[in-house]
Amino acid sequence: MRYLPRPELTALLDKYDVVQCVTGSPAFGYAARDTKAPVLLQTATLIRNERRMLLQGRGLIPLLRRVMTEITARIDMLALARADVVQVENRWMDRELRRRFPTKVRFDPPGVDADFFHPMSLSERVLKDPYILSVGRFNDPRKNVSLLFRAYRQLRDQLHQAPRLVLAGKTMPRPVDLALLDELQLRPYVDLRPDVGMDELRMLYAQAQAFALSSDEEGLGLVLLEAMASGCPVVSTASGGPETMIAHGGTGLLVALNDPEALAGALQQLLQNPSLRNELSCRARKLVEERFSIQSAREHFLNEYRSSIARSGKGTA
C-alpha cells in the first residue's frame, strides 16, 4: 500500500535532520513512520472530509469507496500520532486536531507571492470590459461549478447588465456542467480560458470586479488568497478552508453551501457597491501581506525546523 513505510525510503530519510511531509490528507505521512528524524506533517484536510461528496450514492463503487475511506481514515490518525509536529492550514483543522493532539498542532498555512499578485493601477489595466472571475480545476466535482452557473443565471436575471463570467484554470468543466451552461442559456456570457499563463492569470485577478468560489470542500483556497492579494473582492462558499481568511463583511463575503440564490445575492451586493468592494479588497490585501504571504510562511516553517532540530539534538539549528 502506498501509505506504508519502505526500508529504502526510511534509509534515505534518516540522512536528514528533519523530514517535511506535505500532504492532502495525513495518511501519506505514514510512510515516514520509521525514520529517526523529526517528522513535520503538513496536512490540508482529513480523508473523510476530502471524499465526502464522492461517498454518496448506492452500488458497488460507492460501497468500495466508503470501505477504502474508512481504512485510510485510520491511517490518517496513525500518521498524525507519529508526527512530531502537525501543521494545518485552516482553522477547522486546527480546532479538530488540537482536541486530539493538543501539544503538537501548529497553524502554518502556505503563502502566496504578494509581490507577484498585487493590485493594479488604472494605467496598468488593459482589459476594459468588466467581468466576474473564478479560477480552479473545474473538472473536479468538489468545485461545484454547476452552483456557480446557477447563481450566475440568477444574477443575470436580476442584473441585465451583469458582467461576463470568466473561468480560468488548468481544466475546464465536465460535459455535464457544460450541458447545464447551455440549458441555462449562458454560453454567450461565459468565457472559458484553459491553461492560462501566470502573467495572464495575474492580470485577470487584478482587473476582475469580483472573484467567486463555489466549492463544496476546500482545504484552504489558494486561489482566494491570490485574488485577495491582487485587490479583487471575493465571494466564497463556507467550505472549510475559506473561513480561515474570509471574515464575512470584513475581508470578503461568505455564503452557505449549495445555495445559488445566496451566491448570486452576494455577487450582486459587491457589483452594486463600489465602496464595499474597495473596503473588502483593501482589508484582504493587508491580511495577505501580514499572514498569508510567502515571506510569512517561510518564517513560520523555518522556525518549526529550528525548533524540531533543537529538540531532537540532531544537526545544527
Q: Considering DSSP H and I runs of 4 or more, what fraction of the residues is helical? A: 40-55%
- What is the domain tally? 2
Low-pLDDT ranges: none
Mean pLDDT comes to 93
Spatial gap, N to C terminus = 35 Å
Global outline = globular
Structural class determined from secondary elements = alpha/beta
Element pattern in H and E? HEEHHEHEEHEHEHEHEEHHH
* Count of DSSP H/I helices: 11
The main β sheet shows up as: 6 strands, parallel
**CATH H-level homologous superfamily name of the largest domain:** Glycogen Phosphorylase B
Please name the CATH topology of the largest domain: Rossmann fold
Strand proportion: 15-25%
Give the strand line-up of the largest sheet.
7-6-5-8-9-10
Named at the architecture level, the CATH assignment of the largest domain is 3-Layer(aba) Sandwich
**Radius of gyration from the alpha-carbon trace, in angstroms:** 21 Å
For the record, the CATH class of the largest domain is Alpha Beta
Total DSSP E strands: 10
